[in-house]
Amino acid sequence: MRPLEGFMCIYSNPEFVFIDEAALKRIAGGVAKLPLTVPDWRFPDVLPAIDDEKFVQFVGVVTSVNFAFTNFKPPHSKFEIDWKGRKFQGSLALGASFVRAIEEGIPVLNARYLRLLDRAELEYIFRGTNPIPLLKERLEILRQLGNVLLERYDGDFLNLFKKADFRAFSRSVMDIGIIERLFTDFLGYWDSSYHSGSGKILRFNKKARLCAMIYQGRALSSGGKLCLIKDADELGPPADYRLPLALKAMGILKYADSLEEKIRNRKIIQLGSNEEIEIRAQTVTAMLKLMEEINKIRDEKINMLRLDYAIWSLAGGLCGPHHLTPTTSY
Asked: Which GO molecular function entries does the Swiss-Prot or TrEMBL record give (predicted)?
């Protein structure tokens, strides 16, 4: 499976993050009994109730800035907004901020608007009870996204999907897939790390994979209005903060004492460090192995769209600290 390319060198010789194979098989038995459905991504006030083609634009824009919602300095508050009598946190607050802006008449999905966006406007869009981290970086990403959308895709993310022939992965240098178009064209989607232990460059592409997975969930529920991604079964898990938190709570991931202490004490895990790369790489490997074990048990086989959402949802009930890495990648 494509996401494992280059990751096995870490799995075979980890220094900081380890996979407990016995725990993985035990957890697979329990998860296999869950419904494991593909979400349709029709969540009120977080994902807009707009037509499916406009939804593609929403996902493309919003996912580019879907990263780092916990502030990196004490007290480590999480981005939060209070809207329509509800509190939204993290990625839900991000989605709600964009929906709120749309309802206020701010053209946040318009590429021409985005390329000229200024800091004051973005501060207003993300106004909340707790501030959003890395605002400067988000502004730069959205401006660049607006420019590239206009120059290469006539301002519309749906055109990117069409040019990729609704394939997630490239088949040749002339037939470039959705994932590669996203991470090569857009600053906000670039996500790779050099692992000094193996000498390899690992392409995580968390947000690009997430964008394609959300699109596919909506397409499956669109009644044929959106074309399905032809190779969606090859989509791997988006390696973020939340999945390793869940996998560790389940006992699937084990951390070295030094890493465990840093996370518990809310110390920064530097971007590109072997510790940070191992957390992400072992998360991807563990998720793929978990899916493999589940599919040995279930009559109805699953793909990562189902498993990722199930584990991500389970992580929502966990209160332990996740690792802190200042990054725009996840």
From this structure: hydrolase activity
